[in-house]
């Protein structure tokens, strides 16, 4: 299944931030080649968008794992505003 994690920040990310997002996704994915990290800017906010695949499971069973893994790996992300997790088709 496809997973998308979006973290909003107020300042441009550093390379270490991209590495942290890749590390978080690598702990959850069933295919390391599926991991992508990109940025998008909307007004003042910058979105760090991480996409990857996971073994198909009920979303309610994996959401806490996803949330915890990304919180762990992004503990030092500066000016962290919000995080959302979705499961695009």
Structural domain count? 1
The whole-angstrom Rg is: 12 Å
What string, H for helix and E for strand, traces the elements in order?
EHEEHE
- Rough shape? globular
What is the share of helical residues?
Answer: 25-40%
Task: State the end-to-end CA separation.
Answer: 8 Å
Name of the CATH first level:
Alpha Beta
Mean pLDDT: 95
Biggest sheet record = 4 strands, antiparallel
Could you give the topology of this structure?
Blueprint: E1 2-9, H1 15-26, E2 36-42, E3 45-53, H2 59-73, E4 80-86
Antiparallel strand pairs: 1-3, 1-4, 2-3
Helix pairs in contact: 1-2
Architecture overview:
This protein has a single domain (2-86), classed as Alpha-Beta Plaits (2-Layer Sandwich), CATH 3.30.70.260. The chain is built from two helices and four strands. It is globular. The chain is an alpha+beta fold and 89 residues long.
Give a nutshell description of this structure.
The protein is α+β, with helices and mostly antiparallel strands. It is built from two helices and four strands, in the order βαββαβ.
List keywords for this structure.
89 residues; Alpha-Beta Plaits
């Amino acid at each position: 299944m496809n997973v998308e994690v979006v973290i909003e920040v107020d300042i441009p990310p550093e390379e270490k931030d991209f590495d942290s997002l890749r590390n978080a996704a690598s702990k959850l994915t069933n295919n390391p080649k599926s991991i992508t990290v990109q940025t998008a800017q909307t007004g003042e906010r910058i979105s760090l968008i991480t996409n990857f695949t996971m073994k198909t499971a009920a979303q309610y069973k994996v959401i806490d794992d996803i949330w915890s893994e990304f919180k762990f790996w992004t503990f030092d992300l500066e000016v962290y505003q919000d995080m959302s997790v979705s499961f695009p088709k």
